[in-house]
Specification:
Blueprint: E1 7-8, E2 12-13, H1 14-35, E3 49-60, H2 62-73, E4 78-82, E5 85-98, E6 102-107, E7 110-115, E8 121-131, E9 138-139, E10 142-143, E11 149-153, E12 158-169
Antiparallel strand pairs: 1-2, 3-8, 3-12, 4-5, 5-8, 6-7, 9-10, 11-12
C-alpha cells in the first residue's frame, strides 16, 4: 500500500491524508454546533420544550401590584426580557396574598417577634416559556430550577428576589 516515499497507493502522502481527515472532522463538528444539531429535547416546535413555572415575590407594595396587574392580564400576558432582548416567555398570571406582618426570630433567650411594614403583599407569578435545552432550562440569562431566586423582568416591570416554587415541563397533560 505505501510506496518507498510514504505515499498511499503511490499518489497520496499518508500525513496529508491525516491532515485532510482532521480538517473534515473539525468542519463537521463546527457545522453541527453552528446549526444547533443535538441541542434541545423533542416535544416542542423547532426542538424547544414548553416550561411553565411559578415565581413567588414577597413583600411587594399594593400599588406595585395594582399597576403591573393590567399588563399581565392583557391577552398573551407580558413578555419577559433580559439584557435588552425579548424572550420567548410570558408572565401569564399574577395573584396576591397578604404578607405576614411579623417576623419571629429564635434566640438564646427565647423568641423575638418583630413587626414588618404593614399592608405588603406576596405575589405569585405564572410564567410560560419555551426553552431550547430542557437540561439547563435557561430563560434568557437565568436558569429555572425549583428553589432558585429569579428576577421577573418585562418591559413594564421588574421584581427581584423572587423564588421559583414550581416547574412543569411539557403541556402538563
Amino acid at each position: 500500500m505505501l510506496d518507498e516515499k510514504g505515499r498511499l497507493f503511490g499518489k497520496i502522502n499518508i500525513i496529508d491524508l491525516l491532515v485532510v481527515l482532521l480538517v473534515l472532522v473539525v468542519a463537521v463538528v463546527v457545522a453541527v454546533k453552528l446549526l444547533g444539531g443535538g441541542e434541545g429535547l423533542p416535544g416542542g416546535e423547532s426542538g424547544s420544550t414548553k416550561l411553565t413555572y411559578i415565581v413567588e415575590v414577597d413583600g411587594v407594595k399594593p400599588e406595585v401590584y395594582e399597576n403591573l396587574k393590567s399588563y399581565v392580564e392583557q391577552e398573551g400576558g407580558d413578555q419577559l426580557m433580559a439584557s435588552g432582548d425579548m424572550l420567548d416567555a410570558y408572565v401569564t398570571g399574577v395573584t396576591a396574598e397578604p404578607h405576614e406582618e411579623v417576623v419571629s426570630l429564635n434566640t438564646a433567650n427565647g423568641q423575638i417577634t418583630l413587626p414588618t411594614e404593614p399592608g405588603l403583599l406576596d405575589l405569585t407569578f405564572t410564567i410560560e416559556s419555551n426553552v431550547v435545552n430542557a437540561v439547563t432550562n435557561e430563560v434568557g440569562t437565568q436558569e429555572v430550577r425549583i428553589g432558585k431566586t429569579h428576577t421577573v423582568k418585562t418591559v413594564h416591570f421588574e421584581l427581584v428576589n423572587g423564588v421559583i416554587t414550581d416547574c412543569q415541563w411539557g403541556d402538563g397533560e
